[in-house]
Amino acid sequence: MNNQNSQRTENPTITWASLFVSALAQAGLDAVCICPGSRSTPLTLAFEAHPEIEVFLHLDERSAGFFALGRALATDKPVALVCTSGTAAANFYPAVIEAKMSQVPLLVLTTDRPPELRHSGANQTIDQVKMFGDHVLWAVDMDVPTEDVSSVSLRNVAQTAARTYHTAAGLVKGPVQVNFPFRKPLEPVDSEQWVVNRGQLSVFSEQWAAQFTQGKLLPTEKQVAQLTEMVQQQPHGLIVCGPRCPEGIFPEAVAAFSQATGYPIFADPLSGLRFGPWVENTAVIGGYESFLAQKHEPSWEEPQLIIRFGQVPTSKWLNDYLDRINPAVRLHVRGNGVWADDSHRTTAFWQVDEGSLCQATSERIPVSGGPPMVGDESWATKILETERSTWETVQTGMAEEFFDVAAVLAILEALPEHTHVVMGNSLPIRHLDQFGQPTAKRLHIFGNRGASGIDGNTSTALGVASAADGQHTVLITGDVTFYHDLNGLMAFRQNKIDNVIIILLNNDGGGIFNRLPVAAVEPPFTRLFITPHGLDFAHAAALYGLPHQRIHDQQELQTILAAGWPTEPRLIEIMTNGKQDEVRRREIVKKIIGNL
Q: What pLDDT, on the 0 to 100 scale, is given for residue 188?
């Protein structure tokens, strides 16, 4: 192959796919999830042959999508998805939606029939052009590869690959779709010549694909001065860190900002702030879902400055509190510029690197004897006293009776430092939000709170585990959520994932509905909302070769935990009663408020 105005090859489809994959690897791609199919053969072979890209095989496209999402969550790097034509791509949709709403980078590579077969009644052919609508950052429908192809067409293939990767990994991260209409033949005509051509294409991708670099949106002098003035004028302030706060320097930078200002941090469990060494010397608050419950009015005066980072908090009652108070300023800071305020009460929105802003402002605040320097110490002390009282009541309540929350907290306490913890949607994430006490033990907490669906949670956890570099990964999930993604368990064997423990909270149905007013409407409530299923998940574990343990009480759980944290995959099923669990939770919250 030579770089002239016209290029020929025995199979142009293979050339295009190999060039595209080579350019993706050059851009930084190191992982792909492939679902088997015929039309995707060129991309599948190209990915499998590339030495710098790890291939994860999946039989179910929906599971593959969430596996890729989980790996991208853990690495903060794009992961590619490949599927054949037809409804296969539609099964990526739930993961694509979650990726868009949580700003997670995915490369969705769909393969398609050629244009002449679209809208013709041809088998396994649907309209895949821009099929994900506004749920992707960019959608591209590639040309059909032809034998008589110009250099500019090949350069476009390489450039599109580079742009695809860097769009997904940009300031606003998210999914990108590239649709490949391929004509037959789909295989290399000469396997030996294919190897030679792949080596040449690597060289050409380096020449043709643009090199992208990305900087930070550093704070301006005006922004730093404004924030410094705000905190100096407002002694009563709160820092609220929601899900998907940035990593890197941010946790320590915002902790230093809290120390300098005296402003407590209300830290969502998915913020990256609630579990880490900064908790030792920073006012990190986690009990708000209990001490603000039922619109309880706290003992402190309303804050006059709210500084928010990340997405909308998980907590119902924190959001309710923030909505009903009237601070002078509500500042929301997000480096990616994505709006996250469903109450529409923000008074100032700054698109600037969060960690850099915290660092620069902290340096402006005079230090003279330890925090709080700017804030009202007596005001902040009231919040800290409320927090302390909350956790004392929680600890007493957990010791009195075994129920689902007590099991979750016992497991969290037993986890080794740096464990990756994936919280299933519905009850598990809410339990952690309400009862997960801030601790200096570093835990990496993940969850799908963009669209907050219960689909794909198991696959997300396995994707996180695939990037955990030998660290333990734990999924804490409910039974209905687990049922929704049983197919995801195939990845244990298919992709040799051996560092995941699944904690299954089985209350035989949708226990979260016990929190809703409709719970009083019987007889339809149990059948239509709780939906008892009576499933024996030991059979699911056996189907996929997972060891299974079933727990009924605190003693059985402590026996397992006392033996040391398991080093091999297994399913630990904890049997609970959803209605009794909810009664117990409400009793503890009532005591928390009563003790304040």
A: 84
